[in-house]
Please model this.
Amino acid sequence: MDALKDKRLFRQQCLIAGEWWDSASGARVAVTDPATQAVIGSVPDVSGAETRGAIEAASTAFASWRERTHAERAALLETWHDLMLEHVEDLARMLTLERGKPLAESRAEIRYGASFVKWFAEEARRIGGTTIPSPTRDRRIVVLKEPVGVSAIITPWNFPNAMITRKVAPALAAGCTVVVKPSEFTPFSALALGVLAERAGIPAGVINIVTGMPAEIGAELMANETVRKISFTGSTRVGALLMRGAADSIKRLSLELGGNAPFIVFDDADIDLAVEGAIASKFRNGGQTCVCANRILVQAGVYETFAEKLAARVSAMKIGPGTEPGVEIGPMINAAAIEKIERHVSDALAKGARVLSARPAMPGGGQYAAPVVLGGATTGMLLASEETFGPVAPLFRFETEAEAIAIANGTPFGLAAYFYTESLKRSWRVAEALEFGMVGLNTGAISTEVAPFGGVKQSGLGREGAQCGIEEYLEMKSFHIGGL
Ligand code: NAD
Model:
């Protein structure tokens, strides 16, 4: 963190009620740079009782935050947004140090993260209600929108900035206050957002950030009746656990969970466009994104050409620390990630897949996984049914459109899907047949603050971003006025 221009952005304490705290026990969790495995700092390992303190702080702040006008809340969010952009270099560097992604990707994430703050600052002004035609002449009915209340925000390590702003910005815009629990692997990006929120003038207690190991913090967030909403991004396993834990106090839930995205290339596709789309969708963040292409389905007529072009691109990729210029793939987050990738590749090879790409030059040390294109993938392989979350591109050959759709939908997940075709009729047919929350046609890029983001089936509940994203933090109250 020595290279930061503004060293005060690097905080190693948690934020509760506008104060920076260590845990009473003194317990801390070390954070490492995945490129070197060197410890870059540590954060307090917060207890259940301390989490309760953060919830109480959010509850106290809620009383006055909800009373602010939408314009006042929007103005504070706008300032927070501007500060993020002002500090994009420092925030990106910090993000690369704890997550490992190339600096260019980290900068893009900070801008993407900030875009949600701007968007929801604008949406804050547009929270309206409705007037319902009354069934009788002496009554009127209106629907009011009110903030849900204290919201728990639990986020993963793969987008340490944007997954927080995508939730906190609509929560604050709606008038909710939050307790944020970032991933224990990437707490510094979250804490830096807390520093900037303070500087923006967002009042004490509106954003609280608790750090540390998840079990005790999660148990309190689930059980505490003051928490009215949990918004979670992460694995389906933990999402299900939170859903069960939230049941006793009937909390509102938003769940952005795992995916198993198909990426389908039809015979009539623009192959060069499809190769570039596959590179963007598959290898961004080293293949560690929820919307990553996990299964690349290629129609028989273009299979060889596509495979050859993709393999050539992948063989020439530059692997290394995210801070090094020109690096396309940084380190994986931890040893468990490497183990899963290796397990998927060896299972595929044992079941008949072939390596089509050359192994690019690999850096020494660090937690790196070589990017690889595998030919001859089949549905019985582990990488067909589980998210690999790494730079592995398995190619499945198919003959007919119906076969591709059956393979694509043959998963309990339904987050993102992509397909490439130049046919207008096929475009609509396939888009409507895919059982996914987001579909990209002739593009590998589907994430933007202006469109709903979220999944169906076991990929989650609710949508983030877009006009609907703020509804996740609003309750409807129907108000009946009689005797008129
Ligand atoms: P994870 O589920 O292990 O952890 C996510 C968060 O949950 C972390 O903050 C973690 O500390 C916390 N957590 C873990 N156990 C908990 C518990 N018992 N109680 C409360 N919190 C707990 O996921 P991850 O490895 O950090 O992230 C990768 C996963 O996230 C992948 O499956 C990926 O697809 C998914 N993801 C989904 C989206 C989306 O928008 N759908 C976006 C990014 C990542």
Q: What stands out?
A: The longest strand covers residues 140-147. The chain has 14 helices and 22 strands.
